């Protein structure tokens, strides 16, 4: 088994995780806890102004950790904080340890009041991250170099999109937003980054009534047709969270309306692309996008 294969699981594996077999959680409870954990990671990451890929790496570490440990034994706040700290070092976007501790403590307590480094709360968070980092590294088998769907998606648009650039930017923007929101799901445990990227592009095209056979031509057909079922299944996994959000809010979202979903705060050059995202009842509070030329060759 290669290092990449060991982190791709079958759907049924998600129904027999340590949280369920040993921790007593149901599948739905674990799914919700995972989403809350990634939301915490994103919240802390945005507070620390971490790059998008750093937050995505932290989310990936988080999901992988709970395939080998139980939520009953390790609180998602503790693991989320450690994933943020480790990912910031892995992706060379290191923040001061003190700043990470303060941000985690504030977001966990849902308050903005300053936290002194002499306080008991600060010391507890510090000790937790230091203790948990070694466990996290061992659980990940020290495999810290990861790949994300963003690179594949951006390369696809940059090299093969044949229509005007503003349409390309619009479609890329929405696909990026769907990838962001997928971080809260276990999609990264079921499919390789390439499939997730294609699923996000597929949904984004439907979202904007874009014909990918025209705008990406033979390239899209060559990519899509061999993995049609996998891409459809991955797309369904992404969309399930919106159905759940609508159920919680007592609203029907049969038709996604531009500017109201997926709820991602996508920004390019610090300009909000969809103001509607910020006020949407289905908002999932995903990371801000800031184009980084280093993502694509």
TrEMBL record:
Gene3D superfamilies referenced in this protein's UniProt entry, alphabetically: Cyclin-like
Assigned keywords, A-Z: Cyclin
GO molecular function, one term: cyclin-dependent protein serine/threonine kinase regulator activity
Region described as Disordered: spans on this chain: 250-272
Protein's GO biological process: regulation of transcription by RNA polymerase II
Signal peptide: none
Residue ranges occupied by any Cyclin-like domain in the UniProt entry: 39-138, 151-240
InterPro entries found in the cross-reference section: Cyclin-like_dom, Cyclin-like_sf, Cyclin/Ssn8, Cyclin_C_2, Cyclin_N
Pfam families registered for this protein in UniProt: Cyclin_C_2, Cyclin_N
UniProt record similarity statement: Belongs to the cyclin family.
Protein name: Protein BUR2
The organism's taxonomic lineage, starting at the top: Eukaryota, Fungi, Fungi incertae sedis, Mucoromycota, Mortierellomycotina
